[in-house]
Design brief:
This protein is of the alpha+beta class. It contains 5 helices and 9 strands; from the N terminus they run ααββαββαββαβββ.
Length: 182
């Protein structure tokens, strides 16, 4: 099990809950959190995943098939807790105004501003631990727990987990009817 990074991630989370001395080991593992700035709003098109978390993979597969250019654009995951339930959006970069409407997708905006960032390497093997990364990030006093979390899929190996810094405006807003404001 030592070579299995997914197990290490979740094992470290389990150890954190058992003793204080292990907690310090856990903190070292996630101490590479950095400041990150989004300099301009990001227009995203996508859809709410109705069967979270099980439907995330399928939602992204459908999105990739639907958008022109497939992997030639950036992909995002946007998550927010509302009334005790996670609302998750599988999204892709909108390349031109109105593209979401043309493709029958909802439009969202990730607002510019300051974020905390944690890079996750080899993310495909750690999908069951990504929630733990966000939980740890939200322990930082600067983290805005009322703002949605953002995942930026940089490639098949690297993704960024982003959490809004307090004091910034809400970082995602829905632009299509029926979706509501996140």
């Amino acid at each position: 099990m030592i070579g299995d990074e997914t197990s290490q991630c979740c094992f470290a989370i389990g150890l954190r809950q058992q003793s204080c001395s292990v907690y310090s080991i856990y903190q070292i593992q996630f101490e590479c959190m950095k400041d990150y700035q989004i300099r301009s709003n990001i227009n995203v098109m996508g859809a709410v995943v109705k069967t979270f978390p099980m439907g995330i993979g399928e939602a992204f597969e459908n999105l990739i098939r639907k958008v022109p250019g497939g992997f030639s654009r950036n992909y995002y995951g946007i998550g927010e807790c509302k009334d005790g339930k996670i609302i998750y959006i599988a999204g892709a970069e909108e390349k031109s105004p109105g593209e979401a409407i043309e493709l029958g997708l909802d439009h969202f905006t990730i607002e510019k501003g300051d974020y905390l960032a944690e890079e996750v390497l080899d993310w495909r093997t750690k999908t069951n631990c990504i929630k733990d990364v966000f939980e740890e990030m939200y322990q930082d006093d600067r983290a805005d727990r009322s703002a949605p979390s953002i995942e930026i899929y940089l490639d098949d190996k690297k993704m960024l987990c982003l959490v809004r810094v307090k004091g910034e405006e809400k970082n995602v807003r829905a632009a299509s009817e029926g979706v509501g404001r996140l």
